[in-house]
Write a structure and sequence with these properties.
- By secondary structure, this protein is of the alpha/beta class.
- The protein has an 8-stranded parallel beta barrel, surrounded by 5 helices. The protein has a 3-stranded mixed sheet with strand order 6-8-9, covered by helices on one side.
- Helix 7 packs parallel to helix 9, helix 9 packs across helix 11 and helix 12 runs parallel beside helix 13.
- The longest helix has 23 residues.
- It is globular.
- The chain binds D-gluconic acid.
- D-gluconic acid binds next to loops.
- This is Family 1 glycosylhydrolase.
- InterPro entries: GH, GH_1_N_CS, Glyco_hydro_1.
Length: 465
């Protein structure tokens, strides 16, 4: 059954990020990032690997642009490496770093592919991290300065800008639980990192606008949060989890206020900052992977699990596959009866349309048009990845349902073009439409790559008719 036809001009793309694909970490003046340091700490990365080479995209980008051209996407979401452009996070741009992105952006434009760069996808310059990173207000200002410099150089060819990728994950996993860089386990003392990222976002939006940018968004992770029972304790815990992982990072942007009870926990002047944070966006990016089933800390939500195992059941948003400390007032439960990806994440396509409905109900006309900036799945298959095809097919049908209900969705980006360095999982989880041999760095398009290529040409044909 062919996919339903999406509106004319719908933006079809794939996504990657700099630290996960580029490699060449010490080449051409690139400075170290918080993740370079984190991967060197023993035991931080599940398979002991690191991203010093990753997929070597830094040298193989022409081959990867050729894959994008063959795929037939209209847009490519990638991230700019702040430490490659500003080795210490501030000061003059690193010319060889800028040249790299200049060449990549030119090649994309020449191939008729819209460049969609993310300014920050987790690789904080180590020099800034060592000073406190996003716990420090000044990092927000440095981020805006970096945005202004980059926009002055690439803005003439960039179609759409993304300020931040998933400030929730950086805050909760990096500063809250310490399972991601910078590896700090501050629990609720991590909240200033949320505020400063959002402030950095708002300041960057203004800096980009001053440079003439006309299409700016953010890529937030979102997913429905369900309570594992109707009990007051479980629904209360689910509300708390929803506030921490969804609302904390959306309400300030779209409503100009923090969820009740949170603003008091944040470093000021919060009200003044909220005016900056709520700088209007042209569109709102949603990274969706799956919903989360939540219960009270002592709850025994599902048959499959008991109290205290605390193993998070994959990331809708928030605590992906992480031990939940007893101090946190919730427990995560396995979604019963669901197929699972190779990463153990539940396959819940209807969670995508549910997420969009929740956003529309919550934010009404304050919600700008939406782009699905990430959706995808990890499976171990080398090239015959029928499970990935089924996953993407089902999610796209759900997305079309939301469109048919009048939710304005302007684009969809598959995570990811290539297998890549999956953060604390290292190379053990493969999300690519293209298989990467980490020994030879050879790229081999999977069955899903050809499925998506055919689906895009069918969309173009339908659009033309
Ligand atoms: O959503 C995220 O966590 C990041 O944006 C990506 O960098 C991940 O690699 C991907 O999502 C798979 O986990």
């Amino acid at each position: 059954q062919p996919l339903p036809v999406f509106p004319d001009g719908f933006l079809w793309g794939v996504a990657t990020s700099a630290f996960q694909i580029e490699g060449a970490v010490a080449q051409d003046g690139r400075g170290p990032s918080s993740w370079d340091a984190f991967t060197r700490e023993p035991g931080r990365i599940k398979d002991g690997s690191d991203a010093t080479v990753a997929t070597d995209h830094y040298h193989r980008w022409p081959e990867d642009v050729a894959l994008l051209r063959e795929l037939g996407v209209g847009a490519y979401r990638f991230s700019l490496s702040w430490p490659r452009l500003l080795p210490t996070g501030a000061g003059p741009l690193n010319v060889p770093g800028l040249d790299f992105y200049d060449r990549l952006v030119d090649a994309l434009c020449e191939a008729g592919i819209q460049p969609v760069p993310t300014l920050f996808h987790w690789d904080t310059p180590l020099a800034l991290e060592e000073r406190g990173g996003w716990l420090l207000r000044d990092t927000a200002r440095r981020f805006a300065d970096y945005a202004a410099e980059v926009a002055a150089r690439l803005g003439d060819r960039v179609a759409h800008w993304i300020t931040l990728n998933e400030p929730a994950e950086v805050t909760l996993l990096g500063y809250g639980l310490g399972v991601h860089a910078p590896g700090k386990r501050l629990l609720f003392e991590a909240l200033p990192a949320a505020h400063h990222q959002l402030l950095g976002h708002g300041l960057a939006v203004r800096a980009l606008r001053d440079q003439g940018a006309r299409s700016i968004g953010i890529a937030n992770s979102h997913g429905p949060v369900h309570a594992c029972s109707g009990s007051e304790a479980d629904t209360g815990a689910a509300d708390f989890y929803d506030t921490l992982t969804n609302r904390l990072f959306a309400d300030p942007l779209l409503l100009g206020r923090y969820p009740e009870g949170l603003a008091e926990l944040l470093p000021g002047p919060v009200d003044e900052d909220l005016r900056v944070i709520a700088e209007p966006l042209d569109w709102y990016g949603v990274n969706y992977y799956q919903p989360t089933l939540v219960g009270a800390a002592e709850s025994t939500g599902g048959p499959a699990d008991g109290p205290g195992d605390g193993i998070a059941d994959g990331p809708g948003a928030g605590f992906a596959g992480v031990d939940i400390p007893a101090e946190l007032p919730f427990a995560l439960h396995e979604m019963p009866g669901r197929e699972r990806t190779g990463f153990g994440w539940a396959v819940v396509p209807e969670g995508l349309s549910e997420t969009l409905r929740i956003l529309r109900v919550r934010y009404g006309d304050r919600l700008p048009p939406v782009m699905v900036t990430e959706n995808g799945c990890a499976y171990p298959d080398r090239t015959e990845d029928s499970a990935r095809i089924a996953f993407l097919d089902a999610h796209l049908r759900e997305l079309h349902t939301a469109l048919a209900e009048g939710i304005e969705v302007r684009g969809y980006f598959i995570w990811s073009l290539l297998d890549n360095f999956e953060w604390a999982e290292g190379r053990s989880q493969r999300f690519g439409l293209v298989h990467v041999d980490y020994t030879t760095l050879e790229r081999t398009p999977r069955a899903s790559f050809h499925w998506f290529r055919r689906a895009l040409s069918a969309q173009r044909a339908a659009g033309a008719s």
